[in-house]
Amino acid sequence: MNAQSIGVFDSGIGGLTVVRSLIERLPNENIVYFGDTARVPYGPKSAQTIREYAAQDTDFLLKYDVKMIIVACNTVSAVALDVVQKHAKVPVLGVILPGTSMAVAATRKKRVGVIGTLTTIASNAYTNAIRQLDKSLAVVSRACPLFVPLVEEGWIDHPVTAMIAKEYLFPLKLEKVDTLILGCTHYPLLKNTIRSVMGDGLTLIDSGEAAAAEADTLLTERVLRNPSKHAGNVQFFLSDMPHKFAEIGERFLGRKLGKVRKVEAMSSGK
Questions:
Q1: Is residue 246 part of a domain?
Q2: How distant is the alpha carbon of residue 208 from its chain centre?
Q3: Calpha distance 30→234 (Å, rounded)
Q4: Which neighbouring-strand residues pair with 7?
Q5: How many CA atoms within 13 Å lie on the side-chain side of 183?
Q6: Same domain assignment for residues 170 and 230
Q7: Pair (122, 199) in one structural domain
Q8: Ramachandran class of 101: left when φ > 0, alpha when ψ lies in -120 to 50, beta otherwise
Q9: What is the pLDDT of residues 21-79, one digit of tens each?
Q10: How many structural domains compose the chain?
Q11: Residues designated as active site
Q12: Cα–chain-centroid distance for residue 161?
């Protein structure tokens, strides 16, 4: 079982930042990635629809006999993690709890900020998780929906992105947060812009890095680590091949993607 893959899914290609963190931390592990690019974005959709999609995404990964599933999508982690856990008979990790734990440990002034999609922020998933760990912390949340299309357009260092970041992040800067959770898999590509807006002394929490660290711990505890000394095999599957995917995907992954396969349309589940 140890040679089996870690399954990762996301609503699109943003979850490749989580895969990138996994490869850096667990280079010998095999990975199967599924991006539901035909139905992206999940963020604006209803909780019921997201839950249906999460079940279908999970079923796809289970076909590859994965030993663990990481839900790279913050939106699914916020409103449908229980669906994945019920469907899968293997360990399941979301990105919210690992990121939350890292933020609570990192904050010095007990002032934590959270940025994410509309659905993730509206769910209060991060705020509730933080309060469960430490009720004394002040939490400031802000939806930043335009960050996703800006990243996918490749406008990482564009003046327009900096201008929009100033608008979005002003309330968090005003509240003097010292720790900021990047509650969307696209946002790590904007770290430099966010730091320049927020100023010195800010600790950025990359939920993908936190999830990879949690996966490392869990695999060790469950004696599921791949003993191979060779680099793991990474397989990429998408439900659609969007325009400029290779270019965007390599930006997220930080390396060449290799072969990417398009799968048949996902079942409606009805």
A1: yes
A2: 5
A3: 6
A4: 32, 69
A5: 35
A6: no
A7: yes
A8: alpha
A9: 999 999 999 999 999 999 988 888 889 999 999 999 999 999 999 999 999 999 899 99
A10: 2
A11: 73, 184
A12: 21
19 in any annotated domain: yes
Same domain, 125 and 160: yes
Residues 13 and 62 in one domain: yes
Q: 201 and 160: one domain?
A: yes
Residue range 172-231, pLDDT digits in tens:
999 999 999 999 999 999 999 999 999 989 999 998 999 999 999 999 999 999 999 999
Predicted model pTM: 0.90
Residue 268 lies in a domain: no
* Residue found under tokens 């769910």: 123
Residue 269's pLDDT is: 43
Secondary-structure percent of the chain, ordered helix, strand, coil, rounded to 5:
45, 15, 40
Contact predicate 69/7, CB 8 Å? yes
The DSSP secondary structure of 132-156, one letter per residue, reads HH-TT-EEEEEE-TTHHHHHHTT-T
